[in-house]
Amino acid sequence: MSRNQIKESGIAKTLARKELIDMVPYQSARRLQKADKAQGDHVEQRSIWLNANEASGDGRYELNADCINRYPDFQPDHLIDAYSDYANVPAEQILATRGADEGIELLIRTFCTSYQDSIMICPPTYGMYAISAENHAVDVIKVPLIENKLDIDSVLNQASRAKVIFLCSPGNPTGNLLPSEQIQTVLDNVKESIVVLDEAYIEFSAEHSVATWLDKYPQLVVLRTLSKAFALAGLRCGFTLASSDIIEMLSKVIAPYPISAPVADIASQALSENGLLVMKNRVTQITAQRTQFSQWLASQSWCQEVFPSAANFILFRTSKSELIFNYLKQQGILIRDQSKQLQLANCLRISIGSEEEMNAVKTNIERVMATNAELEKSEQQNNNNNRKQEA
Ligand SMILES: *Cc1c(COP(=O)(O)O)cnc(C)c1O
Question: Model's pTM, two decimal places?
Answer without folding.
Answer: 0.93
